[in-house]
Amino acid sequence: MRLFAVLIAAVLGLAPVPPARAFETTARAAFVMDVTTGTVLLNKNADTPMPPASMSKLMTLYVAFEAVKSGRLTIDEQLPVSQHAAAYKGSTMFLDPRDRVRVEDLLRGIIVLSGNDACVVIAEALSPDGTEAGFARYMTQRAQQMGMTNSIFKNASGWPAEGHVMSMRDLALLARRIIEDFPDFYRMFSETEFRFDGRAPSNIYNRNPLLTLGIGADGLKTGHTQEAGFGLTGSAVQGDRRVIFVISGLESAEVRAREAEAIVNWAFRQFARKSVVKAGVELARAPVWMGEATTVGLTTVEDVNTLLPVLGNGELKAEVVYTGPIRAPVAKGDVVAELVFAPDGLPETRVPLVAAEDVANGGFIARLRTVSGLLLARLQNGPEGAL
Q1: What is the mean pLDDT of residues 6-10?
Q2: In which domain, by residue range, is 351 found?
Q3: Is residue 207 domain-shared with residue 284, that is, in the same domain?
Q4: What angle do CA 368, 372, 374 make, to 5 degrees?
Q5: Beta partners for 219?
Q6: Nearest CA to 57 among 209, 251, 207?
Q7: C-alpha separations of 64 from 60, 94, 196 in Å
Q8: Cα(64)–Cα(72) distance, rounded to whole angstroms?
């Protein structure tokens, strides 16, 4: 059996396309993804675990959203504030141990006000052992289950702690899960202010600098500590496209705001969504081993779209890759190959290809044909010429 790669650009009818120019970011780490097509537009140290600061509050929120959805918490439930929660400094809701606070207010306090104290109140309510540390261990376990393999949590708020880390790709994955799994809660992320009980006049505004710019931004979370620098996990929608981006390690809030706006504009202006192939279109035929037919058609289950740069000159090449010949029997819909393509400057995209029809095991004639072909290949090319 051998790995085959068949160039099929002509079959797809792909016109020449321009090379993509990478965004020059000053962030220490960055990740930009077009959600609609799944295309990664920028990857700079995106898999390196780093201190996430308050951006890790997104994981506390995700666990809280799950708890409300499952009935473990209710929106109107009032939770007590511990001395531990009230003692937190930094950005807070100015909670007091005498308070009992509605879950909905706590969620808004985390999303809009970045309240460290609100995170701890939620954490202690949902922790397996009633402590923030126990909740952090659960957060880490849940993150691993979700595919966030470079995330470890030591607390619920992102307060500086040795070993409390996330990667930019993990944060993007988490942002996408929040948007897709909890659309009703996600609306809170676009709220620009939250006045809780009139007690925190100095902390009523959302720190996300993009929400009021009219560029489609609708979330998610800023972060800042001395060690982490300034960061932002953001998302924006324009037309039928959504972009998620994460940046970290910037030197000031002003630089973060400029960089985030520039990334959003670059992602939407420099790339256009294009159709690569329609579902059901036969892209190639692969040889079949010991089958009733000698080949099988290859196609995609769904339409395949990608992002292509809108400026410049270049060419998009696509290949069908499979290990063959493919052994019979083959059932229609079996994944037997991949479509592989990569516009210049963008990561490679791999799309599963399925069998377009059934191919049953062959009878005596098919087996005789296969053996004869092997013998002929050996005679012509030696033992290495046989498949």
Answers
A1: 51
A2: 2-16+276-385
A3: no
A4: 120
A5: 235
A6: 207
A7: 6, 20, 19
A8: 9
Q: For residue 85, give the nearest of 158, 156, 160, 142 by alpha carbon.
A: 156
In this structure, are 360 and 379 located in the same domain? Answer: yes
Spell out a b/e string for 32-51, using b for 16 or more CB atoms within 10 Å of the CB, else e. bbbbebebbbbbbbbeebbb
**Two structure tokens written together for 366:** 């098919």
Cα angle: 167, vertex 274, 323; to 5 degrees: 70
Residue 189, helix vs strand vs coil = helix
Classified as helix, coil or strand, 105 is: helix
Cβ neighbours for 376, distance < 8 A, ≥ 6 positions apart:
none
3-class DSSP assignment, residue 5: strand
Catalytic residue positions? 54, 57, 114
Domain boundary, last residue among 218, 242, 269? 269
Answer whether residue 23 is part of any domain. no
To which H or E segment does residue 40 belong? strand 39-44
Residue given tokens 């390196």 in the structure block: 48
For tokens 């990740």, the residue is 31
Q: What is the DSSP letter of 150?
A: T
What's the Rg (C-alpha) of the chain? 26
Q: Which residue has the higher pLDDT, 55 or 14?
A: 55
3-class secondary structure, 119: helix
In this predicted structure, what is the pLDDT of residue 116? 97
CATH number of the domain at 209, please.
3.40.710.10
Spell 359-376 as b/e; 16+ CB within 10 A means b: beebeeebeeebeeeeee
Mean pLDDT of the chain: 89
Domains of the chain: total: 2
Global pTM?
0.83
Give me 124's structure tokens: 């202690």
Residue 97 lies in a domain: yes
Please say if the pLDDT value at position 374 is more than 90.
no
Query: What is the rounded CA–CA span in Å between residue 289 and residue 283?
Result: 20
Q: How many CA atoms lie within 13 A of 26 on its CB side?
A: 13
Report yes or no: 268 and 321 within 8 Å, Cβ to Cβ: no
